[in-house]
Every structure is written in structure tokens, then in C-alpha cells.
Amino acid sequence: MPKSALIVWGGWEGHQPRQVAQIFERVLRGDGFAIEVADTLDAFTDAGKLAALNLIVPVWTMGKISAEQADPVLAAVRDHGVGIAGCHGGMCDSFREHTEWQFMTGGQWVAHPGNDGTNYKVKIGPAKSPITEGLKDFDVSSEQYYLHVDPAVRVLATTQLPVADGPHAPNGPVEMPVVWTKLYGKGRVFYNALGHQANIVESEPCLTLMRRGFAWAAK
Question: Which residues contact 162 (CB under 8 A, 6 or more apart)?
């Protein structure tokens, strides 16, 4: 029986959620998942259906989520071991007022100094994982996310800030997590800060990171 995944897309259009969801659907179908795709947060309200999934993939930036929509997701991951995996603002800038969502995902976007088109390096490590096995450090021209990050996450890739100037620069160099995993109750959580728009999601090794992250989160 194939593993099952739910992709839910929407929110701020600047992140091209429909296009990113289509890429994720193609990747997951290629890896043998049975996929449902929805463009409403009401897709989260069926607690029994969510609990029977292997993976939830949110692609939703800067929205508001009700308790009736959020609670079944939290319970599916925490209590039933359903994986959750996503990227960029589609998972860690989804619901700014919902702190439990941030507790689950492991971080929250707060800034991207230099905005889109910032040139920076992503360094693989320090933690080793099958998600990053064989991958080398790589350069990106995109948004460089500054995140507030759960200290419990297992960091699989980092980038050094500052690159662009900003109020963070006087603090000196910091290693900012870009890719991480964590556990939330019984469930596995995967996050990749790359993916501002569909072309970045499609680029390598971003797409390989997402494919492997989906598989890891879905066990």
C-alpha cells in the first residue's frame, strides 16, 4: 500500500504556492506516494483522515489558522507520528500568531536582509543525515532567511550572516540554520529554508533535499 501525503497550499502569492505545490506533488508521486492536494486550510479539519496519513506538506505563507484547522495537524504529528515537511515561508512563516505551530516546526522567519537576489553559501552539516549524504556546500542567489530557531533542532545545513547589511550586522558573524530535522511528539519534522519561488525549489540540490526530507519525515 503506498504511503499517503496531503499537500495544502495558499497564503501569500509571492511565494508561488500553487507552483511549489505542483512540484512537490510531482516529486512525491514519483516516489510512490498517494497524494491529495488542497487549496484550503479546511483540509486540515478531518482529524481522523490526518491521523491516517504518512506525511503533511504545508505550502502556506502569512495566513491565519483557526483552532479547528490547526489542532488536527498538531495531533496527527504529535500523537500519531504523521510526518510534516516543508520549505521557506510555506512552513516557517505560515501562521505568525500561532506559537504552537512554530513549536512544532522548529522555527519562525523574522527577516531576510538583502531581500531576494542575495548571494550566499549554504554549508552542509554539522549534523550528518541521509538527507544530506553526498551533498556538498553550494551557492544560492535568493532570500537568505534569518530565523528564530528551536535549540532542539538537528541542524543539517547552515549559512553565515551577515552578508547584507542590517540591524543584525553589529552582532558579528552567526551560523544560521538552513536545513533541519526535529521530533514533535511521535512525529518527524523536516524544514528547508530555501524555496522563495518555484525556480529555487526546482534547483539542485534544493529539490534533492526536499525529496529526501519528505521520505525521512514519512519514515
Answer: 113, 168, 169, 173
Distance CA 137, CA 181 (A): 18
Residue 191, beta-bridge partner list: 86, 180
User: Full-prediction pTM beyond 0.90?
Assistant: yes
The grid cell for 49 is 483522515
Q: Is the pLDDT of residue 217 over 90?
A: yes
Return the DSSP state at 182. Answer: E
102: cell is 512554530
Whether domain 4-217 has CATH 3.40.50.880: the reply is: yes
Q: What is the mean pLDDT of residues 21-43?
A: 98
Backbone angles phi, psi at 199, to 5 degrees: -65, -35
> Residue with C-alpha cell 512552513?
91
In angstroms, rounded to a whole number, what is the distance separating the alpha carbons of residues 113 and 161? 9
Neighbours of 93 (CB within 10 A): 25
Pairing mode, strands 154-161 and 146-149: unpaired
Tell me what percent of the residues of the chain surpass a pLDDT of 90. Answer: 100
What mean pLDDT is predicted for residues 11-17?
A: 98
DSSP 16: -
Neighbours of 153 (CB within 10 A): 20
Pairing between strand 187-192 and 83-87?
parallel
Q: Which of 100, 91, 93 minimizes the C-alpha distance to 72?
A: 100
- Answer whether 149's CB lies under 8 Å from 113's CB: no
Domain boundaries, the chain: 4-217
CA atoms within 13 A on the CB side of 123: 11
